[in-house]
TrEMBL record:
Highest rank taxon of the organism: Bacteria
PANTHER family: AMINOTRANSFERASE, AMINOTRANSFERASE CLASS-III
Annotated protein name in UniProt: Aspartate aminotransferase family protein
Organism: Schinkia azotoformans LMG 9581
Keyword tags: Pyridoxal phosphate
Assigned protein family: Belongs to the class-III pyridoxal-phosphate-dependent aminotransferase family.
InterPro entries: Aminotrans_3, Aminotrans_3_PPA_site, PyrdxlP-dep_Trfase, PyrdxlP-dep_Trfase_major, PyrdxlP-dep_Trfase_small
Gene3D superfamilies per record: Aspartate Aminotransferase, domain 1, Type I PLP-dependent aspartate aminotransferase-like (Major domain)
UniProt-recorded Gene Ontology molecular function terms: pyridoxal phosphate binding; transaminase activity
Signal peptide, first to last residue: none
Length: 461
């Protein structure tokens, strides 16, 4: 018989399940997944889970899609790996052209393929710096970023990340730190209200540029909608138009970290589409192959590439598995499936439906402070007092409580918080696969409601 995981003593759990796999928390229970099917995952006790967050906002078309499996098999039968310094391959070339056509921009965008979002950000940083070097400017090598942000776990990408918890152990070896104000209307750092604020948070980029000196700055990086560090924190209208204008005026490149928002997640192909703005360089990850294989990409506009093409003619970066045919063919199949099945439209429509249901849930809850996001990327922030927005104290570990108890009830949600729990807000992201139906959204919200009510009763009675 199935034993609910929280009933297993944690230490007992690990003794029974001991393996040498390093897990995020070694003494905690993690179900062992055996297989997936669409929006569902199953573990080795036979328990079924609704994948309410696509893993880490990644499995955007759901699990074990037969068309993707067929495409992967077909490519594996041809060739899985060739080294990028010796060969290119048809799927790699085709994928680069496909991403460019999805952008539908005035100028072409070139793609550099890597294996994780963090590497895509690292590559974006290097392309930005190299762009200025090739123009003979060796001073422009600083990259500005915001607090309450996450750009990756490698030292360069973590240096840019405004994520206190992930930084703190490595602060002494990080190269840099964020200097620009977060964009966070629910807890405005300037204590203002939109639109009276006239976008003080965007103007803060200009202050940061003036402080550091535009002649030292290669680029500014931002997530269109903040993911892991804050739970789908969504900038107001006009924000990115202003950011774009400030970057242009100061001759600074704009890097969009679309690792989480990229390829349909927010109801548009790219997150920045909501603001009608294009970045100079983009990082893509997660959704590129929907988790079927590791692949990510840094995209750079013709304008960014031009001095490089006319100069050293080479991007000084790369990994052994960069642009391998297996991963690029898989990503192509995923994108083709998204387009063919009109999934971005589905995200838009069902995202609205999900948002309304979660707003209704919030209206009757004593611990939901804010519901926000776009498409199927909705954040829920928990507070101990909805009127004062007072966070829970860190000992409560509210995000963990919600995530664990939802999982025990058969629903996966994604924890998002930039600080130590309680210090900078506690949130989860609800981000199911794009193929979810309205009926399945009802099921998802029912389990979430039950979970939040149980936690609320435990905490505030
Ligand atoms: N940027 C953003 C916006 C992300 O959400 C993530 C992952 N959560 C990363 C970068 C890093 O990607 P990866 O975990 O694939 O290295």
């Amino acid at each position: 018989p199935h034993v609910p995981p929280t009933l297993l003593p944690r230490k007992e759990g690990i003794r029974l399940k001991r393996s040498l796999l390093i897990k995020p928390m070694m003494n905690e229970y993690y179900p062992t997944v055996t297989h997936g099917d669409g929006i569902y995952l199953f573990d080795n006790t036979g328990k079924k889970y609704i994948d309410g967050c696509s893993g880490a906002v990644t499995a955007s078309i759901g699990h074990t899609n037969p068309e993707i499996i067929a495409a992967m098999y077909e490519q594996a039968n041809k060739v899985s790996f060739v080294y990028r310094s010796q060969f290119t391959s048809e799927p790699a070339e085709e994928l680069a052209n496909k991403l460019n056509s999805l952008l539908n921009a005035k100028e072409d965008y070139w793609s550099f393929f890597v294996n994780s979002g963090s590497e895509a950000v690292e590559t974006a940083m290097k392309i930005a710096i190299q762009h200025w070097q090739e123009k003979g400017n060796y001073r422009k090598n600083k990259i500005l970023s915001r607090w309450i942000s996450y750009h990756g776990i490698t030292i360069g990408a973590l240096s840019l990340s405004g994520h206190v918890k992930r930084r703190e152990r490595f602060v002494h070896i990080l190269e840099d730190y964020p200097v620009v104000s977060p964009v966070y209307c629910y807890r405005c750092p300037f204590n203002q209200k939109y639109p009276d604020c006239q976008l003080s948070c965007a103007n803060d980029l200009e202050t940061a540029i003036e402080r550091a000196g535009a002649d030292q700055i290669a680029a500014f990086i931002a997530e269109p909608i903040v993911g892991a560090a804050g739970g789908a924190i969504t900038p107001p209208d006009g924000y990115y138009q202003k950011i774009r204008e400030i970057c242009d005026r100061h001759h600074i490149l704009f890097i969009a970290d679309e690792v989480m928002t990229g390829l349909g997640r927010t109801g548009k192909m790219f997150g920045l589409d909501h603001w009608g703005v294009r970045a100079d360089i983009m990082a893509l990850g997660k959704g590129v192959s929907a988790g079927y294989t590791p692949i990510a990409a840094a995209l750079a506009s013709e304008k960014v590439m031009e001095p490089i093409l006319n100069g050293s003619n080479s991007i000084m970066s790369g990994h052994t598995l960069s642009a391998n045919p297996q991963s690029t063919a898989t990503a192509l199949a995923v994108i083709n499936f998204i387009e063919k099945s009109k999934l971005v439209e589905n995200v838009q429509e069902n995202g609205e439906y999900l948002l309304q249901k979660l707003q209704a849930l919030a209206a009757n809850s004593q611990i939901i402070g804010d519901v926000r996001g776009k498409g199927l990327m909705i954040g829920i922030e928990f507070v101990s007092d909805v009127k004062t927005k007072q966070p829970f104290s860190s000992g409560v570990q509210i995000t963990k409580k919600i995530v664990d108890q939802a999982r025990d009830k058969g629903l996966l949600v994604y924890p998002a918080s930039a600080g130590k729990e309680g210090a900078q807000g506690d949130a989860v992201i609800i981000s199911p696969p794009f193929i979810i139906t309205k009926q399945e959204i009802d099921d998802l919200v029912a389990v979430l409601k039950e979970t939040i009510e149980a936690v609320q009763n435990e905490l505030v009675g």
